[in-house]
Write a structure and sequence with these properties.
Elements lengths: L7 H8 L14 H17 L2 H6 L2 E5 L5 H14 L3 E4 L4 H14 L5 E4 L18 H5 L5 H17 L3 E2 L24 H16 L6 E5 L20 H8 L1 H6 L6 E4 L19 H11 L5 E4 L5 H4 L6 H9 L4 E2 L4 H13 L5 H17 L13 H4 L3 H14 L1 E5 L11 E6 L5 H7 L4 E2 L13 E7 L13 H11 L3 E7 L15 E4 L5 H11 L31
Parallel strand pairs: 1-2, 1-8, 2-3, 3-4, 5-6, 6-7, 10-11, 10-12, 12-13, 13-14
Antiparallel strand pairs: 9-14
């Protein structure tokens, strides 16, 4: 695996200029390092104080909210001289054209970010969807995750995006987590670390900045921080062992950004109800001083209810900067925030050197990402460039490698061309799976199971809605009863096209074969059908603790004919 280059040479060259950064492009030369420092110093000196403060802000650009919203962002870019944009929904060509325009209007090129955890599809519906992190966590060959992230980086470059706000390194120990869930690589620290490092390397070796999130750990929460402030009440020993552990393990791996969550963590912050995102104890005291992180520190979106409901725009931005953040993401009050930060500087609450530290860190990162100059992107053919056969082949291979066989007691797999009945359950589409299985498959509705001859091989498909990564998974009582009835006199193969958490309250003791496919989409259904037919091997491992019976790391290998 390629390693990112960040050495004592880098520290030596830039220490005198007060420039540090966590991310450095691979194979950078001494000459390029020197040029970077010179560009940063030269650019910084040309900026007015107002322009310097503007570098600290990233605002959201939507293309599905009308021209007035776009005009508002255009005004902020021109007059508030911000440092970057985060691209939201939903038209790729429109976004490219606007980014080209806004880059031309900016004295310092903008850094362009996107939440692209499962690729730019997360915001651009015409793009191809990559697997969620939990699906990736089941994959044993982590090089495949690096390959996927490199392809995401390719898509980002095509869009003019420089920063993918990923990967999530939250350890999801709460099956009912309403905000992380499928976005986590799993419930085991080591798997989260190994998966996240492969993801980050795939991005950054392709010159797209990564950001590990959500510090200090969002994996055991029961409140959606988009709506209110979650509380993580674990003691310090537990936090260090689980929540903070992935961040600590990845701190020295050259990852360019850390995103700080809107969480209240009493063990780390004595002030009642103070979110981590505005806590100096957590950001400066823990992340910067104790853990020694030198990269860009960015808030989670400042429009989220956990903080937006408690503080005024601008006030929130100033608090976040005082706490130690370099960048305020999704700012709702740039002009107000700049005024309050300057007021704090004038009052001696914030030093000018603190501004210099953050701005130079931002500028250096921009230089390393090639933003010392900007080349416009061409919107022509963008949708086909983001969704073609190269994406499909890669993604189906990822789903194939994630498939996790938890039981195969009667050796019902592979199917070996035997007559098979198929009973699709739950609310999501299933036809792609049925078609790929073959023409001999006999589909039966739940109401028709009594017509299936005894001792038949019956595939039961739990097809869960795949429209969002956030929705908790629960199987209906009707589906549970149907499954139980079928196990009385049939040989059942249960396939779960959804999170393994769907199995947490299901009795599978009498189900001889259980396979987890993780998601319900055309790619996952195609990969699953091929595996059931014996064409491809099955060798994924369960990434999460589901219940006392189904533990992380479980999985049975089954060879395929293509091996």
């Amino acid at each position: 695996m390629k390693k990112l280059v960040y050495t004592s040479l880098f520290i030596f060259l830039f220490l005198s200029s007060n420039i540090t950064a966590q991310y450095v492009p691979k194979d950078i030369s001494r000459r390029d390092m020197k040029k970077a420092g010179e560009w940063v110093d030269k650019t910084y000196k040309k900026l007015s104080q107002d322009e310097k403060l503007g570098q600290l802000f990233i605002v959201a650009l939507y293309t599905n909210r009308g021209e007035s919203e776009i005009a508002k962002v255009r005004n902020i870019v021109v007059h508030d001289k911000i440092g970057g944009l985060i691209l939201m929904q939903d038209d790729a060509a429109r976004e490219i054209n606007l980014v080209n325009e806004f880059q031309q209007k900016s004295k310092v090129p903008l850094i362009i970010g996107m939440d692209a955890e499962w690729g730019v599809f997360q915001r651009i519906p015409t793009a191809h969807k990559y697997p969620w992190a939990m699906t990736l966590g089941a994959i044993q060959d982590k090089n495949l995750i690096e390959q996927m992230a490199a392809k995401i980086a390719e898509d980002c470059h095509r869009m003019g995006i420089n920063w993918d706000f990923a990967p999530v390194v939250d350890v999801n120990t709460n099956p009912n987590n309403p905000i992380i869930g499928n976005r986590s690589f799993g419930s085991e620290v080591s798997n989260v670390v190994n998966s996240a490092l492969s993801y980050a390397n795939g991005l950054q070796n392709s010159n797209i900045l990564a950001a590990i999130k959500h510090f200090p750990g969002h994996g055991d929460t029961s409140t959606d921080s988009h709506l209110d402030l979650p509380v993580v009440s674990h003691n310090l020993e537990r936090l260090n062992a689980v929540e903070i552990a992935p961040f600590k393990a990845l701190m020295d791996k050259g990852i360019g950004g850390v995103m700080v969550a809107h969480l209240y963590v009493p063990a780390l912050e004595s002030g009642k109800g103070i979110p981590a995102s505005v806590s100096k104890n957590i950001i400066t005291g823990l992340l910067k001083d104790k853990l020694g992180y030198k990269g860009l520190i960015i808030t989670d979106a400042l429009n989220m209810g956990a903080v937006a409901n408690k503080y005024k725009p601008g006030e929130l931005d100033a608090m976040a900067f005082k706490a130690g953040n370099d960048i305020m993401l999704f700012s709702q009050g740039v002009a107000e925030g700049k005024k309050l930060i300057q007021k704090a500087i004038d009052n001696g609450e914030i030093s000018q050197s603190r501004v210099e530290e953050s701005v130079k860190k931002i500028l250096l990162t921009k230089y390393f990402l090639g933003l010392d100059t900007y080349t416009p992107k061409n919107p022509e053919n963008i949708n086909s460039d983001l969704n073609n056969d190269s994406h499909k082949t890669l993604v189906q291979n990822l789903y194939s490698n994630a498939l996790t066989l938890l039981k195969n007691e009667k050796s019902l797999l592979p199917l070996n061309n035997r007559t098979v009945y198929y009973v699709p359950l739950e609310e999501a589409p299933y036809q792609t799976f049925a078609n790929r299985l073959g023409t001999d498959i006999i589909i039966k509705k739940a109401s028709e199971i009594n017509t299936i001859p005894a001792n038949s091989t019956v595939i039961v498909g739990f097809h869960k809605d795949n429209s969002t990564a956030y929705k908790p998974y629960k199987i209906s009582d009707v589906s549970k009863r149907t499954l139980a009835d079928l196990t009385k006199n049939q040989n059942v193969i249960l396939t779960v096209f959804g999170s393994p958490y769907a199995l947490k309250d299901i009795d599978i003791s009498k189900v001889p074969t259980v396979l987890v496919s993780y998601e319900n989409n055309d790619d996952s259904m195609t990969a699953t059908a091929d595996a059931l037919n014996g064409k491809t091997k099955i060798h994924g491992r369960l990434p999460v603790l589901v219940n006392e019976t189904l533990k992380a790391g479980m999985g049975i290998d089954l060879p395929g004919s293509q091996e």
